[in-house]
Automatic annotation (TrEMBL):
PANTHER family: F-BOX ONLY PROTEIN 50, F-BOX ONLY PROTEIN 6-LIKE PROTEIN. It is found in: Cytoplasm. The lineage of its organism: Eukaryota, Metazoa, Chordata, Craniata, Vertebrata. It comes from the Eukaryota. One of its GO terms (cellular component) is cell surface. PROSITE patterns: FBA. GO terms for molecular function: ubiquitin protein ligase activity. It comes from Ictalurus punctatus (Channel catfish). Pfam families: FBA. Keywords: Cytoplasm. One of its GO terms (biological process) is glycoprotein catabolic process. Residues 54-67 have a biased composition (Basic and acidic residues). This is F-box only protein 50.
Length: 235
């Protein structure tokens, strides 16, 4: 076991960073799972895209792609590894002047994707999480669009062993500048540090807005990640 412990320390420089290396840890399993410095989320790019190239442009035609098929109301992609849900939002008629007859209003929805990362199942150990408290880095990229002023939300929680108690959380709800449009990817990131003992799970959820008005328009995401660092930024 000492050989595997040395392999882990050599790869991540844990002792040099002050991380505890107890003898009661299955270091062979830790080394094989490689829980540090890798993305712990499954299927981080469900649309098959990368933030290294701009999102594909969509041609607005005002017509359904195939009128013989039922309308599309949710995004398409490979969402394996994610739990998904749809929240349809109330119709907004606030901007319509009195007396104006409207034949059709766009329908907006939130499309939610979430995962829960079991840190111990991924190979991390109690003393590392409780005493050393390595940085937990979150990153995500969403597609800039003119769909709406609010098209993306991020909610990340560090949970205790019961899977319910929230130890730390981070929420991000950016507002889009609809007058300056470049249709590129926008990065969202956060680092949890000094979060205290007891963290055993990371719950990652992002919500993207969709719109249906004859055609379906959805906001895409890519490059989602949860990475436990071999270092910590707080004493």
């Amino acid at each position: 076991m000492a050989v595997w412990k040395q392999k882990c320390d050599s790869e991540w420089q844990l002792a040099a960073n002050g991380a505890p290396l107890p003898d009661d840890v299955d270091w062979k399993s830790v080394y094989e799972k490689k829980p540090l410095e890798r993305n712990l989320l499954k299927n981080p790019s469900p649309h098959g895209l990368t933030h290294d190239t701009p999102p594909p442009e969509r041609e607005v035609t005002g017509e359904r792609p195939d009128p013989d098929l039922p309308p599309q109301f949710e995004p398409t992609g490979d969402f394996s590894g994610w739990s998904t849900s749809i929240e349809q939002l109330p119709l907004d008629s606030s901007g319509i002047p009195p007396g104006v007859v409207v034949c059709y209003l766009p329908t907006f929805s939130w499309f939610s994707l979430e995962q829960r990362v079991d840190l111990k199942a991924e190979g991390l150990w109690d003393k590392l999480l409780d005493k050393f408290q390595p940085d937990i880095a979150i990153e995500d990229w969403y597609e800039e669009s003119q769909l709406h002023a609010s098209i993306y939300e991020l909610h990340v929680k560090l949970l205790a062993a019961d899977g319910q108690t929230v130890i730390k959380e981070h929420t991000c709800s950016p507002t889009e500048d609809l007058e300056n449009y470049s249709h590129n990817w926008k990065q969202v990131s956060h680092v949890f540090s000094g979060y205290g003992p007891g963290v055993r799970y990371v719950h990652f959820q992002h919500k993207v807005k969709t719109k249906f008005m004859v055609e379906f328009f959805g906001t895409m995401v890519t490059g989602s990640s949860v990475v436990v660092k071999a270092t910590k930024s707080s004493p």
